Amino acid sequence: MYKNFPTHVIVFAMMFAFTSCAEKITEIGNASYYGDQFVNRPMANGKKFSQHKLTAAHKTLPLGTKVTVINLTNHERLKVRITDRGPFVKGRIIDLSKKAARRINMIDAGVAQVELRYRKNR
Predict the structure, then answer these.
(1) Which of 27, 29, 26, 33 shows the shortest CA–CA distance to 105?
(2) Domain region containing 109
(3) What pLDDT is attached to residue 5?
(4) For 52, which of 28, 32, 101, 106 is 20 to 30 Å away at the CA?
(5) Is residue 13 in a domain?
(6) Residue among 77, 68, 79 at smallest CA distance from 105
(7) Is a pLDDT exceeding 60 seen at residue 10?
(8) How far is CA 117 from the centre of its chain?
(9) pLDDT band at 36 (very low <50, low <70, confident <90, very high)
(10) From CA 75, how far away is CA 117, in angstroms rounded?
(11) In this structure, is residue 3 part of a structural domain?
(12) Contact 29/91 with Cβ under 8 angstroms?
């Protein structure tokens, strides 16, 4: 049926179809970042926490989900991977590693209003 199409074209078309079916989700709320006392403690994914990676904690997203985080004060953005559960402070939607917090310039503030963007597979 697909004899005239190169294999990479078929694979790309299938990948596009699956990714475009994913529902786009946006959340707005407060972000904080992990304190140094959490370094080397185990995360929900079984690995030890490091402040030097672009990771984050979210209460409900599947571990491994990639999330775009946008600081709504300065519009700095980055992508992080969900590796842990939390935050466990009322009113916060994500906890970032210190490296991630530094990238969106929220270290001095400690807490920043952010927008999260990610795709949710059905």
Answers:
(1) 33
(2) 23-120
(3) 47
(4) 28
(5) no
(6) 77
(7) no
(8) 8
(9) confident
(10) 13
(11) no
(12) yes
Assign residue 77 the CATH number of its domain.
Answer: 2.40.40.10
User: Rounded to whole angstroms, how far apart are CA atoms 50 and 29?
Assistant: 24
pTM for the predicted model, two decimal places? 0.79
CA R_g for the chain: 17
Question: Residue 63: inside a domain, yes or no?
Answer: yes
Backbone angles phi, psi at 110, to 5 degrees: 85, -40
Going 25 to 30 to 33 to 35, the CA torsion angle's sign is negative
Tell me the C-alpha to C-alpha distance, in Å, between residue 33 and each of 2, 5, 79, 98, 112. Answer: 50, 48, 15, 6, 10
- Domain count of the fold of the chain: 1
**Helix residue ranges per DSSP H, the chain:** 7-20, 98-103
Residue scoring higher pLDDT (71 or 37): 71
For 74-86, what is each residue's pLDDT tens digit? 999 999 999 999 9
In-domain check, residue 74: yes
pLDDT of amino acid 35 = 85
- Average pLDDT over the chain, rounded to an integer: 87
